[in-house]
């Protein structure tokens, strides 16, 4: 089942996050990920918390009931269920947003963006964390060159100030013309994993 939020990159990214969460083997929850300090369960709990945060900012509703930046490392069936609820809430919230809106509330400083940039910020979070988990469990990358180009164009508009808060690592040097590798390096990840 695909999402239909009105933002194509977001639909693809939310689907990717949900699919990779459902594909985690029972013995893989504690595997390391490209997010050096978090295992698979922590990355997915963090990503779910972020999606709940976007939904809450858009709707004025309840955000996550846990700290997405200090996620539990405990895995199990509740993790894919949490991701499913979070991406569904995010998709529902974004579906109610006019894609041409000049300002929407988002949990990313400066806490207001155009609807398209805000949706891309939300998509970036989902897609990159889906990639983190895919790498950890040996699945194909959910990032396509087209999606990576769009998300990188958005990322350069808001990522730099977030590095100071530890939300993103420093960019990894290198350039080879591969849009997926360029996005990953920009976000502080090694594309060779």
Automatic annotation (TrEMBL):
Using the record, list the residue span of the signal peptide; answer none if the entry has no such feature: none
SUPFAM superfamilies for this protein:
DinB/YfiT-like putative metalloenzymes
Pfam families recorded: MDMPI_N (PF11716)
Domain Mycothiol-dependent maleylpyruvate isomerase metal-binding, by residue range, is 14-134
Stored InterPro entries: CHP03086, DinB/YfiT-like, Maleyloyr_isom, MDMPI_metal-binding
- GO terms of molecular function: metal ion binding
| Source organism of this protein record | Actinomadura namibiensis
What this protein is called in its record is Uncharacterized protein (TIGR03086 family)
Q: Which NCBIfam families match?
A: maleylpyruvate isomerase family mycothiol-dependent enzyme, TIGR03086 family metal-binding protein
